Amino acid sequence: MKEKMTLTVFLGLVLLFILGCSNEDTTETNETSEPTGRSFSMGFTTWSFGPELQDVDDTYAFIANNADVYVEHLDNQIPWNAWINGQPLPQAFTDDVVGRATRKIPNTELVLSVGLLNTNRGDLIKDVDGSIPNYSSLNDAHIQEAYTQHIRYLTTLFSPDYLVIAIEVNELWLRNNGLWNGYVQLINEVMAQTKSTFPNLPISASISLHNLYEADIPNEDTYVNEVLGHINQMDFIAVSYYPFLKNQNTVSQFQENLDFLHSKTTKPIAFVESGHLAENLVVPGLGVSIDGNSTEQKLFLETLLTNAQTNDYLMVNWWAHRDYDALWEVFPPEVRDIGQLWRDTGLLDENGGERPAFLTWQTYFSE
After folding, report:
1. What is the 3-state secondary structure (H, E, C) of 117-155?
2. Which long-range contacts (CB under 8 A, 24 or more apart) does 95-101 make?
3. Does residue 132 lie within any of the structural domains?
4. For residue 226, is pLDDT > 50?
5. Domain count, the chain
6. N or C: which end of the chain has fewer CB within 10 A?
C-alpha cells in the first residue's frame, strides 16, 4: 500500500500579506540576454506535487536531474517538550526528518532551512501536539537551549552545505514586534553555539523580500534598518520572494525589488525559495483574485536568473517544480484555501507538461 505524506508537511506553507489584487497589464518584455557561463547554483525545494510515495520519489529524481542545489524546508513543527525536558523525540518527527535525510541527493548542494516561527510568523512554531512552550522572552534560557539542540540535531543529521536557521524573520517584526529583540538575542546565541560546532558552515536567517520592500507601515525605515542590520551580520543573505503575494507582475516591479535588495547589502545573496503564478488564482474564501499566466511566470524567472548572473548570487531556488493539484486535493477543508495560493506556480503543470519558464530554466541550467 502506498504511503501518504502527512498533513504536517503542508503547514510549512506561509500566507503573510496579500495587499491588493489588480488586473494590471503584463505585456512588458524582458530585455535580458541569454546566459553565458552560469556563476550561480539553481535548485528547488523538495515540496512534492502529490501525496503518494512515488510522487515524492519523482520529485527528488526531478531535482537530481535539473538542479545543482536543493532545499530541505523544515517549517512545520519543533519537538519543544522533548528538547526542554530531555525526552525521546516524537516518532512522527524523526520519521519525517530521517526519511528526508536518507534521500539526500549526491553531488548536489543542500540548503537546510529550519523554521522557528509559526505559520503566521507571529510566535514560536508549534510542538507536535500543537502546543508552544511558555516563555517571557524568546531568549529565555530554556528556549535558547532547546532551539540550539534542535539545530544541532538537524545539522548533524543532514550535513548541509548551507543553513537557514530561521525563516522569513522580518515577518515577526510585522506581526509581533514586541518579540523582536528577544528573537535577535536568541538567534545570535544559537548561531554562536552552532558555529562553535560547525565552524565552516555558512549560516543565515531568511527574509521575505515581498514584505520587506515597501511594507507600507509606520516607521518603515526603522523596520528595514533593524531587519537588515540583523541580517547583514549573517554569512549570506537568504531570501524568500513571491511577487504575486504583493500584486507584483511586471519586469519593472520585479527589478525594483531586486535593486532594493542589492542596495542594502554587500553579502552574497541566496534565493532559498521563490515562485510566481502561471495561472489565474481565485480563492473566494480568502477574497483573492489574482491574474497569472505562463508568460508572466517566465518573465519573472528570466529577471531573477539574469540578476543572479549579473549580481553574483549564490543560488536561486524555486519552491515547487510542478503544480501540486494532486497534493492539494487531499488537504482537509480548513487548509485548502491557503494551500491553493502556491498550487499553480510550478515550472511544470499538474500533468507534468513543461511551461515556457521551464525552458528558460533548462537554458540557464545547461550553462
Report:
1. ECCCCCCECCCCCCCCCCCCCCCCHHHHHHHHHHHHHHH
2. 96/6, 96/8, 96/9, 97/154, 97/157, 97/158, 98/157, 100/46, 100/72, 100/74, 100/158, 101/157, 101/158
3. yes
4. yes
5. 1
6. N
Rg (CA), the chain: 19
Any domain includes 274: yes
Does 37 fall in a domain? yes
> For residue 117, which of 208, 19, 52, 224 has the smallest C-alpha distance?
208
Backbone angle region of 168, left / alpha / beta, with phi > 0 → left and psi within -120 to 50 → alpha? left
> How many Cβ atoms from other residues are within 10 Å of residue 362's Cβ?
12
12: pLDDT confidence band, cut at 50, 70 and 90? very low
What is the reported pTM? 0.90
Mean pLDDT for 5-24 is 34
Please give the grid coordinates belonging to residue 71: 532545499
Query: What whole-number distance in Å separates Cα of residue 136 and Cα of residue 138?
Result: 7
- Residues of the chain by 3-state class (helix, strand, coil), percent to 5: 40, 15, 45
Q: Say whether pLDDT at 287 is over 90.
A: yes
CA distance 174 to 168: 11
φ/ψ of 232, rounded to 5, equals -70, -5
Domain of residue 288 covers 7-365
Grid cell for residue 221? 525605515
Give the domain CATH number at 291.
3.20.20.80
d(CA 242, CA 208): 8
Instruction: Determine how many CB atoms are found less than 10 A away from the CB of residue 73.
Output: 24
- Is 121 within 8 Å of 168 (Cβ atoms)? yes
Query: How far is it, in rounded angstroms, from Cα 68 to Cα 365?
Result: 9
Kindly provide the residue ranges of all beta strands, DSSP E only, lying in the chain, ordered along the sequence. 41-45, 69-74, 109-114, 162-164, 203-204, 206-208, 237-241, 269-274, 281-283, 288-290, 315-318
217 falls within a domain? yes
